[in-house]
Specification:
The protein is α/β, with parallel strands linked by helices. It contains eleven helices and 18 strands. The strands form four sheets. Strands 6-5-4-3-2-1-18 form a seven-stranded mixed beta sheet. The longest helix is centred in the middle third of the chain and has 11 residues. The protein binds zinc ion (2 copies). One zinc ion binds next to helix 2. One zinc ion (ZN) binds next to loops.
């Protein structure tokens, strides 16, 4: 059974909350551990509306310090404390995020009931964030009006699959199976069985890339290449390409182009401008240009 790997969208609007849409926030579930990406205003209300188990959130990743991506943090972090959280929380973000959080908690004289570990990154380079054996995260630079980074969440292959036929053929013991799955040969007195003979590679490891906010940027391609699922902002439709360029955002057509060049056939779009009261037009205009296009919707869970 493959491990759970899915994304639930909690906020899919740009700038301000309108049309019942909220600013950016997503929850990634990998193997029953939760990771938050961006935390716009209203996130804690969305968490309770969609019954997210907030105690399972161990890491929060913030792409940049525009309000629609981080103004939900003070309320959320304080509420964790009111809920008597004791589990450590790691907060990853661009330079400045520590000052933002420390200042708010200092002036309101707030004390947290848990350890908050704030880690700042240089958004000009790609960073790898150590997580656990089966899961890793890399950041990559994005071009926006202030320092911004994207994230790629990767499943890592930690063990090979065993061929059931070969278990019977060689009468493999439990220990021998464990050895082969780790990629080591089975050494018996009479002979050695190479691990390649009894194992095979599991399916291609899955990955999810998150790009919000960014101008249309071909330099993203190598970082997100062949992701199983891509989230790319599409603040505007293509008639507003000039506005996208000016405000350093992306249009639907530009995001489709990035997906195509990155060999990605499944994409969620979001970060919609408040001028669109009905976002189904994004599906209408984009669906013929990619195998699977999801117009991001709050409360919906997408499989990676
Ligand atoms: Zn934004
Ligand atoms: Zn922004």
């Amino acid at each position: 059974m493959p491990k759970t790997f899915e994304v639930t969208i909690l906020g899919v609007n740009s700038a301000i909350p309108v049309h019942k849409r909220h600013p950016s926030c997503q929850i990634i579930n990998f193997d029953n551990e939760l990771f938050m990406v961006d935390c716009g205003e209203g996130t804690q209300i969305q968490i309770s509306r969609y019954k997210i188990k907030s105690n399972k959130i161990s890491h929060i990743f913030i792409s940049h310090l525009h309000g629609d991506h981080c103004y939900g943090l003070p309320g959320l972090l304080s509420s964790f404390s009111l809920g008597r959280r004791t589990k450590k929380l790691s907060l990853h973000g661009p330079k400045g995020i520590k000052k933002f959080i420390d200042t708010i908690f200092e002036v309101s004289q707030a004390h947290l009931s848990y350890t908050l570990d704030i880690i700042e990154y240089d958004t000009e380079i790609s960073n790898s964030i150590p997580m656990k054996d089966s899961f890793s995260v890399t950041t990559f630079p994005m071009k926006h009006r202030i320092p911004t980074m994207g994230f790629r969440f990767n499943e890592n292959i930690v063990s090979l699959n065993i061929n059931a036929e070969k278990i019977k053929e060689h009468l493999l013991t439990v220990d021998e199976i464990k050895t082969a799955k780790k990629g080591k040969n089975i050494v018996r007195k009479e002979k050695t069985i190479p691990f390649e003979e009894v194992t095979f590679l599991p399916e291609k490891p899955r990955s999810y890339s998150y790009c919000s906010d960014t101008v249309y940027d071909l330099e993203l391609v190598p970082f997100i290449k062949e992701s199983s699922l891509l989230y790319h902002e599409t603040t505007y439709l293509d008639d507003l390409t000039h506005l996208a360029k000016e405000r350093m955002h992306t249009t639907l057509g530009q995001a489709l182009d990035i997906a195509k060049r990155s060999n990605i056939d499944k994409m969620i779009v979001g970060h919609f401008s408040s001028r669109y009261s009905d976002t189904s037009i994004f599906l209408k205009e984009g669906k013929d240009h990619i195998q699977t296009l999801y117009v991001g919707e709050e409360g919906i869970t997408y499989t990676v």
